[in-house]
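Hey, weird one. I pasted the Spermidine synthase sequence into the form twice and got a warning about non-standard characters only the second time. First submission, copied straight from the form history:
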Amino acid sequence: MDERVFTERGELVLRRRAGHFELISNGVFLMDTRSGESERILVRAALAAAPPGPRLLIGGLGVGFSLAEAVHTDAAEIVVVEIEPAVVRWHHGVLRQFSEGALDDPRVRVVTADLAAWFTGTSDRFDVICLDVDNGPGWTVFDHNTGLYRAAGLAMLRDHLRPGGVLAVWSASAEPSFEATLTRTIGPVRTVRVPVGRGEPDVVYVASCAG
């Protein structure tokens, strides 16, 4: 079963294979529902460095593993920014089991918007920002997303963190130059490598601002 939608950003496909789902954007594989361990670790590692009862922002809903992890924590508020309305709709249907019905949690607010554009129009600040809108800094879904991982984009994200806040970034591979930029722009970085079945480990970068 494939469900296809066409947006101003191109074709988005939700594909079912052997009981699992895959998200594919313009022919590029984004993620699937087979594991989700590194997406859960993204949230877990970020919140471990955050104050109790944090305001949490998740950039990218995807197949829902990050959000499912977040609602099992003490987060006081969880804002999810997802660019594709179809992805949000699928989480009210076939993907609901993977986000564990988290869209119904009263702490959760979903914003359907481009993350960078949304940040430029809001003064909201968070204790934790978890960024998972691409396959990593070196493999973005859309070309304009590259700006999020450069010094100016990271500085914008920093400006939306409260003092002592945490920025966590998911990547499908190690990105040493990005890690160096993250350290210079945000603060000390903890790197978490998550082994996968084949290929390089997934990597979660957790940067903490000065208090």
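That's the output from the first submission. The warning seems to come from a hidden character in my clipboard, not from the data itself. The mean pLDDT is 92.
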